[in-house]
Automatic annotation (TrEMBL):
Coiled coil: none annotated. The keyword Transmembrane helix applies. It comes from Kribbella lupini. The keyword Membrane applies. This is 4-amino-4-deoxy-L-arabinose transferase-like glycosyltransferase. Keywords: Membrane, Transmembrane, Transmembrane helix.
Length: 734
């Protein structure tokens, strides 16, 4: 498996030794200590569960180790903590005789497929700097955080000197830890190495969650494959398009880790709900909840709602007060409140607004004519409320549910015996539904309400696999059980293939056409599923128990999501094999030239850890003008140097200043004096201004981008020229 990763990343420009060092760091910092901790704290049930839940628990361990060693000034020695842990736990492990891993070939297959998938669908399409390319602006923001966390335990806001950072930065801290120990640069870690290990973690954690939830060994491999390779949405036609990447994202690593942590939380939560937990399990739970606190603000609210539903289920089933569930819920709420003021971040300007998520769904703009900014309007999104287009809103919500069916089918598990009496399934189903539902009632200035859905994208299909395995149980070995199951899976796949080939593409201009185009294929799928169940009931297994038919119908619909995902993977793989060229984004607002990136990489190598730079780069595209999109973070992202003022799009003051009427990208900066001083330092520098910036503001460098606007030739005598290329001039202040 490591050889596959090394070969794939070598094709992207990563030296084999660098990838080997990074994988070794991941194993030493995360996988090994996490596996040992999980087995020691919970007793261990199988090596597959130990590896899966340990791969997530190890992230919480690694975060604490990073904080201690970075705070002490010895970040490269973090591996010593793992050595100490192994020595401490070795006597305990000797007294255990765990069973060998079963289904090992399937695990290896899942890991290989996950690695290939993330390579062909994501990594290959995002080259390393300084390749001229249009990379998402969030990527530079995340990269700057990684640089900052290589030096600081509490990171500053690199875009505004002296301002505190309010953001969920635990993911970036883990990247910094991996880079510090392995010696791999931050851009390589963020863009390629970290997503690769997260893809592998989805397989391991999905396997563990499926096996524990179901209590069935064969469910683990299937859940691992679904979580790591086939976690996309239900797409039955070519148009409209559907995101097939699941929660994996290069520019949104916090969302990726949130989905991983959600799978990891299955371990201790299920053991606690089933009364199988000791003190060690609670310790593991607290570690994971602490990790969740600074990973994504979506995690703990989803967990809290899931605990509330599970608590009611426990009360009704056990006929006694579920104290353990109440404690679990209070832990979630307490940690969320504790971190809200410092670790939430990027939520300013958000509000409750029903159906705001519909703004980005197909045909919303065509039918409603609404082009308003996010969060604008009343309690209901204006395109629906102002025009009274409630039938169209119902169509879009229905399509949203159809798209999410591979996850929402988790709800079926609480309706069948024996899973309906298991509080673990109520908790898992409630988490999935909560993630999907909050997305429809919350509005974020940057459409980040969809992160609630992404948090449960991988959990949902794992729960579906688990309840199918639990309901069928050992009966699946019998011909009258596995044959209808195979027919259902084949029927779902076949129906999806036929629909994709025959469903016509149409131009939508009104509600009726939108309803037909969006819901028509789903209607055909439901009819086909019903017909298949009738055939199974009357011909294949006439005496089969009724709940099995519900399971078969669930499998029919879930399987219908596989053809589109398989096709997408195959096409992307073919493109990688033939080295098909892809667009560089030249001409888009986020495009950066090679010269711009090379200049910032030079600055990264030559600037001191506490240096501050002033620049004329605030917007993308680069040229500054009032009202331009103020989300340029690439100067601090690539250089790692603190900016006197950079992009201010994600500053809490800026997000709050939208007042639900304007885009956060077009607002003036919260610090107008800094903007003027920065522009003057590049366009109209004087000895007095530069002296003030250097002596009073602590500025050490001037970064002047020729594409951002005019650069005064006076800088050649007022400052010390340090670097120059076709696009950028860098000066050192005396």
């Amino acid at each position: 498996m490591p050889l596959v990763v090394i070969v794939l990343l070598d094709d992207l420009g990563h030296p084999a030794d660098a990838t080997a060092r990074y994988l070794a760091a991941w194993c030493v910092l995360v996988l090994l200590p996490g596996t040992l901790l999980w087995r020691t704290l919970t007793g261990g049930r199988s090596w597959a569960q130990d590896l899966g839940f340990g791969s997530v628990l190890g992230l919480a361990w690694a975060l604490g180790v990073w904080a201690v060693f970075t705070g002490l000034g010895y970040p490269r020695q973090q591996w010593m903590a793992t050595v100490g842990l192994v020595i401490a736990l070795l006597p305990l492990l000797r007294r255990r005789s765990p069973e060998p891993i079963t289904w090992l070939p399937v695990m290896v297959l899942g890991l290989v497929l996950a690695a290939v998938r993330v390579f062909v669908e994501l990594l290959r399409l995002t080259p390393l700097p300084p390749a001229p390319f249009g990379r998402h602006q969030d990527l530079w923001f995340q990269l700057g955080l990684v640089h900052a966390l290589e030096r600081h335990v509490v990171p500053p806001d690199l875009s505004a000197a002296g301002e505190p950072l309010i953001y969920h930065w635990f993911t970036n801290a883990l990247m910094a830890a991996h880079g510090q120990v392995s010696g791999v640069g931050a851009p390589e870690v963020l863009l390629h190495q970290w997503p690769m290990t997260m893809a592998l973690t989805f397989v391991l954690a999905g396997w563990a969650a499926g096996e524990l939830l179901s209590g069935t060994r064969w469910a683990g491999p299937v859940a691992g494959l679904v979580s790591g390779v086939f976690a996309g949405g239900l797409r039955l036609t070519d148009e409209p398009g559907v995101d097939m990447a699941g929660a994996l994202s290069i520019q949104g690593p916090t969302g990726t880790l949130a989905a991983v942590v959600m799978l990891g939380l299955v371990g201790p939560t299920v053991l606690i709900l089933r009364r199988q937990a000791g003190k060690g399990t609670w310790i593991a739970l607290v570690m994971l909840l602490a990790l969740a606190c600074g990973t994504k603000p979506t995690l703990l609210p989803i967990m809290a709602v899931g605990c509330a539903v599970a608590g009611v289920a426990c009360w009704l089933v056990d006929r006694r007060f579920p104290l353990r569930v109440v404690v679990l819920g209070l832990l979630c709420a307490g940690l969320f409140l504790a971190g809200a003021s410092t670790l939430t971040g990027s939520t300013g300007g958000s509000r409750i607004q029903f159906l705001a998520a519909l703004r980005v769904l197909p045909y919303y703009g065509v039918v409603t004519g609404d082009r308003s900014f996010p969060t604008y309007g009343g309690v209901v999104v204006p395109g629906i409320a102002d025009g009274g287009l409630w039938p169209f809103a119902a169509v879009l919500v229905a399509w949203y549910c159809v798209l999410s069916l591979p996850r929402l089918l988790a709800v079926v598990g609480v309706m069948l015996h024996p899973t309906r009496r298991d509080p673990a399934y109520w908790w898992a189903a409630a988490c999935v539904v909560t993630g999907a539902a909050i997305t429809l009632v919350f509005s974020h200035t940057g459409y980040s309400e969809y992160h609630f859905l992404r948090t449960v994208i991988h959990l949902g299909p794992v729960v579906v696999v688990a309840f199918v395995a639990r309901v069928l149980g050992e009966e699946v070995r019998h011909r009258k059980v596995w044959m209808p199951l195979a027919i259902s899976l084949a029927g779902g796949i076949g129906t999806a293939v036929v629909l994709k080939q025959v469903w016509p593409a149409v131009v939508v201009s009104n509600q009726k056409e939108a309803a037909l185009d969006l819901l028509g294929p789903a209607g055909v799928l439901v009819v086909a599923a019903g017909v298949s169940m009738l055939v199974i009931r009357r011909v294949v297994a006439p005496r089969h128990w009724p709940r099995a038919l519900v399971v078969y119908a669930t499998c029919f619909i879930a399987a219908s999501s596989l053809p589109a995902q398989s096709t997408y993977l195959a096409v992307a793989s073919y493109g990688a094999v033939v080295d098909r060229p892809f667009g560089t984004g030249q001409g888009t607002r986020i495009y950066l030239t090679r010269a711009e990136q090379e200049a910032m990489l030079w600055l990264h190598e030559h600037a001191g850890p506490d240096d501050v730079a002033v620049s004329n780069v605030f917007c993308m595209p680069t040229r500054y003008r009032p009202g331009c999109p103020n989300d340029a973070y690439w100067v601090s992202g690539l250089s790692g140097v603190q900016q006197y003022l950079g992009g201010w799009a994600y500053a809490p003051e800026n997000l709050a200043a939208t007042h639900h009427t304007r885009s956060y990208l077009s607002l003036p900066p919260p610090w107008p004096d800094r903007l003027q001083e920065s522009l003057d330092a590049v366009r109209r520098p004087t000895a007095e201004l530069l002296s003030q910036l250097h002596n009073e503001k602590g500025v050490d460098w001037i970064v002047a981008d020729l594409r951002a606007g005019p650069v005064s030739p006076a800088l050649e005598r007022l400052a010390v020229p340090a670097y120059a290329n076709s696009d950028v001039r860098i000066y050192r202040l005396r």
